[in-house]
Specification:
- The complex is a heterodimer of chains A (about 475) and B (about 475).
- Chain A is mainly alpha-helical.
- Chain A is built from 20 helices and two strands.
- Chain A has a domain of about 210 residues.
- A two-stranded antiparallel ribbon of chain A has the order 1-2.
- Chain B has a domain of about 190 residues.
- Chain B is built from 19 helices and no strands.
- Classes of the chains: A mainly alpha (about 475), B mainly alpha (about 475).
- Chain B: Belongs to the CPA3 antiporters (TC 2.A.63) subunit D family.
- Chain B: InterPro entries: CPA3_Na-H_Antiporter_D, NADH_UbQ_OxRdtase, ND/Mrp_TM.
Amino acid sequence: MPFDILLALIVGVPVLGSFVLPLAGRIHERLRHSLAFLLVAFSFLAAVRLSSVVFSGQVVRFSASMPFGMDLSFTADGLAVFMALASLLVGLVIVIYSFDYISHYANRNEYDMLVVLFLGSMMGIVFSSNLIFLYIFWEMTAIVSWRLIGFFRGKTDVQRADKAFLVTFGGALVMLIGFLMLYQKTGSFDLGVIKEYFKTQAFPSLALILILFGIFSKSATLPFHTWLADAGVAPSPVTALLHAAVLVKIGVYVFARLFIATFPIGAVWHVILPWVAAVSSIVSAGAALRETDLKRIIAYSTVSQIGFIFFGLSLGVEIAIAGGLLYILMHGMAKAGLFLCAGIIEQGTKTKDISRLGGLFSTMPLTGTAFLFCAASVMGLPPFGGFFSKFLIFLGCVQGGQMGLGFVFLFAALMTILYLLRVFTVVFFGETKIAAREGTPVMVACVLVLAFLSLAAGIWVRYPLDMVQQATTQMIRVIP
Amino acid sequence: MLSLLILIPLAFLLLMNFLTLKGRRMAFAVVMALSFFQIYAVFCPTIMANRPLHGLASVFDFTLAVDGLSRIMLLCIAIVIFIALLVAAPFVKEEDKRFYFAGLMILELMGLNGVVMVRDIFSMYVFWEVAAAASFILIALQKKRDPLEGAFKYLIFSSVATVFVLSAIAIILLISGDTSFAAIREALRVSPHSFLITLAVGIFLAGLFMKAGVMPFHGYLPDAYASAPAPVSILLAGVVTKTLGVYTAMRIVIDLFGFSASLQSILLCIGLISAIFGALAAMGQKDLKRLLAYSSISQVGYIFLGFGCGTPLGIAAAIFHIFNHTVFKSLLFVNAAAVEDRTGSLDMSRMSGLASRMPVTGTTSVLASLSASGVPPLAGFWSKLFIVLALWQCGHYGVAATAVMASLLTLAYMLLFQRSVFFGTLEKGLEGVVEAGFGLTLPAIILAVLIVGIGLFFPYIVHTVIFPVVSY
């Protein structure tokens, strides 16, 4: 199959296929599940196939012409393929986990459709090389997360879902104004054209700020972070999908796509943005230390870790950028694992309040182990994957000569260790308050897979690092 | 052949009275057939070609013409009349009322078609009043207290608008000596900047703003929309105010007066006020139909923003948004009708979680709400994007940015509506609710397909339908 068609299919199959799922669900539950799995698996395998070409240095393009410079065009370069692989891998595990998790709730047909549609739109964002289509897929993820966060339909659930939708939609609208400014300057929404234009021209700071609004609101960076913790009312696989693996990474990815791969930003931003990230990281780590709701702790931890990723990407140092990208993968796997463990604990004990939990290790040894592994990766302990990404970012920080920032983030990393250890000891050790059994085999297998992947990615770090290095080089040096 | 679109409804209106009691039950089918004929006619070049009629029919010949703008309006009118009739069944139950209802719909169809096609300012006024009179009676058809009040308010506002428009026509007649568009254009070309003309334009537009219900001329509109029977609300929100107010304003400005800087700033100003304050007012509503009425005001504001650019792109965007608004607002009113039919109430504080009981209504209402908020990839996104692009190209950056942010307000009240009616847990006492009947789900599905279809195939729609409109 020609690679450009394959590229279009990675996006098209899950997006269009998702609408078949409710119909399949009317025939049989299992048919819908298998179909959902197949759609995501197809995208994943196609991305794997594509990666072999892309990481040999080729760039695959697909495009269809539209009026007003709004061509539907997809581009697969190293950055896009790496991002696609990272999110689809985690997405696939989450889809499998969902089968058991949601088996006893209402609206299951809608759920599967939305999850697959979400992953499809995510692929749309990753591969789009046209700002309008980027925006369209961006909003599609917002619609889907609105429905998914309000999945349980309770009053607070729906209110929080509305909050998340409004915050991200508002940010996206501001971003759209920024895109319009670029359109006015360059006469096109195509990233290639825009890139050419800004090789010789200075990038307008106002547009940069406007676009950052959108990115920060989606990535739940301070001061737009509150929706993320509130969205913890969603089903656990959804929080894993939204908070850990995919949604919040959209902002980070678009940051890399626009401000590293497409147009260079002024030197002053390489100082301002890391500081914004630092404040976001510290404040949310503090919040994570104080919270008693299991999912809110993990959610705040996500905000904090996203700060690390922004820090790496915005330093303007090559090795830190590579670290930031690697962080996306490592954090995605480990954090998804944590959320899914939280889901097992929540379903077993019917509570998310850690002050009412304790001693679960004796009854849930597998979940406990998985939780520990994933937490270790998020903390950045060697030889887990998270260590290498954190290390690269600090290395870049030292190379860039921003020692002050380095210490702030070192402190944030210390806080990460603190709050994760606190959660682990409170929930799994001490006296048993609520007895609970281990989750279903499928769910436990899923968290174990993620825990294993977190460890394996550290031991065989060579492979992801290879991809990241190529992607970074392509972004910074090679002009396609 | 254009006069067919007026003469055939007229003939049916007269002939219907000769039907026997049994035959009168077919009245709805007759009107539906008329709307189908109109949809066919819009796409049929022989009918759209303006050839004069011969023989007896030539007595009724007006100065008629259609361009792309008129065709889109004709299409909107036909779609909305058809949808309104489908919806009408559960709301107009008595046999004789149904007959009157059908007759009034034909009258409305005729009046609106006339407004859209005539190229003579006085005939335009006559048809304008025909359509308005039909709507007064339609609102008050049930002869209950609230509808009568709503109809009365509408009547009073319309009378003031009529006085304005008639005075403006009188002044124009004074200057040009004739009422046909061609003659007026000629006269205006000779003396373009006289005080009288400025006065006429001002008065004329003030009347039309009232008819369009833009802020601050909107006083009657929420009452009229909310108190009218469901099918009539669809008709009013979908085409009546759009044709009598917005279309007429576009027609006289584009064809007769032309854009001037001050006119543009008035239009932009009115548009911005309506778009923002309409949305803010919508947020505070408890009654579902009143919320939709304020949302209508807000969306008309958007249309005026596009129109106020005065550029081809802006006008095309405004027309596109008229069409999209017709589709999504009709759909929302159909959803409201379904809710009213099944729960007997429109009070949003007393319902919740209906989506689980009414899946079709719930799903289609989500699509309509998101389209209204301009969320991609639905139809409303594209027209709003074009409006913003047009504003941006004209250099109205502040207006464009405000228009974009007004979308956030739209989304806010639409989410409020979704949360209190469809999304959420089922309210106690609503367990017995079942999905509305075929007459309410079928139009909802048709309109939802239009929303998604236009959203996905927008390049085709834009190239073949929207842009030819302004290529004259």
